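Progress note, sequence design subtask.
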């Protein structure tokens, strides 16, 4: 069986994908125009994990600055993220998920669970539990004990058995090695010394 990277490389070599789907009357196509690019998906994932600051997105994702600025601007203009000033001197902003952005939790969770089942030989890298009762969520995002879908603010993320020590030293990677609630600020605001 080919690796995912090999399959994607072969596919990309055969097909040039456009970015826009003007000719399609399809809500999924319109959602993909906004969210379908990989950096965008990872930015939203990190926002659920509590990343809020430009420098932290930059360090954790290893994303080019111009791409990060463009994706943050696009997500803000689309109402998925809100930009909030947390320091006036020097001026610094943070990016937080809006209600519209938080609605993306279910598809993000389902996609990540699919990846854990089919693309993670060592087991799940992260486990998600309903913080109110401590029960692990089922594959659909529901709490089996409470019998309902847990909203992201009620979810605790924990290291899973497949989490590997990747030796990354950025503050986001270090913080994600410990249990924590989704949407809570990952790192405290600090001013340069």
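Output:
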């Amino acid at each position: 069986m080919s690796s995912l990277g090999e399959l994607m490389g072969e596919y990309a070599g055969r097909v040039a994908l456009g970015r826009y789907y003007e000719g399609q009357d399809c809500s999924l196509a319109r959602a993909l125009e906004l969210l379908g690019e990989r950096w965008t998906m990872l930015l939203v994932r990190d926002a659920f994990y509590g990343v809020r600051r430009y420098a932290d997105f930059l360090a954790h994702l290893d994303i080019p600055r111009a791409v990060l600025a463009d994706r943050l601007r696009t997500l803000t203009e689309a109402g998925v993220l809100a930009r909030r000033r947390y320091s006036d001197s020097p001026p610094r902003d943070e990016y937080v998920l809006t209600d519209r952005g938080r609605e993306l939790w279910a598809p993000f969770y389902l996609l990540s669970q699919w990846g854990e089942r089919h693309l993670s030989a060592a087991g799940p890298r992260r486990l998600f539990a309903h913080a109110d009762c401590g029960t692990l969520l089922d594959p659909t995002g529901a709490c089996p004990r409470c019998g309902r879908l847990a909203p992201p603010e009620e979810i605790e993320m924990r290291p899973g058995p497949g989490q590997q020590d990747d030796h990354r030293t950025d503050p986001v990677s270090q913080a994600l090695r410990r249990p924590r609630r989704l949407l809570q600020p990952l790192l405290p605001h600090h001013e340069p010394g």
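The first strand starts at residue 81 and ends at 88. Work on this subtask will continue into the next period as scheduled.
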